[in-house]
Amino acid sequence: QGSAFGLALVGTLLKMAPLHSVVVFVALLSAVASDSPTPASIDEASSNGASWEQDLSQKQRKDFEDMRAAQNKQAIHEFHYAKLDGAEEFKERQDEHARKEGHLVKEYQ
Fold this sequence. Notes:
Elements: H1 2-16, H2 19-33, H3 39-46, H4 58-85, H5 87-108
């Protein structure tokens, strides 16, 4: 029941929160779900609100934010089930999400 509430909360957050907040939230969620908080990864996520985003056109920024929100939503879904399969699977999903996010950022930078 708690995880269903968490997913609903994340869905609401993805619709309402600024992109930067969602990135930090996903980093925090990842750290909490893995039972090993990593402040370095949270700081890194906080710095992802880089100035290059300000240089995007309004349409580019909206497209970027929509794609990133969709990736984050999918990642949270995958993190939930990966956690049930064990720490190794969860770590693989985190790495996969980081790669996908990196590709998306490179596409828009």
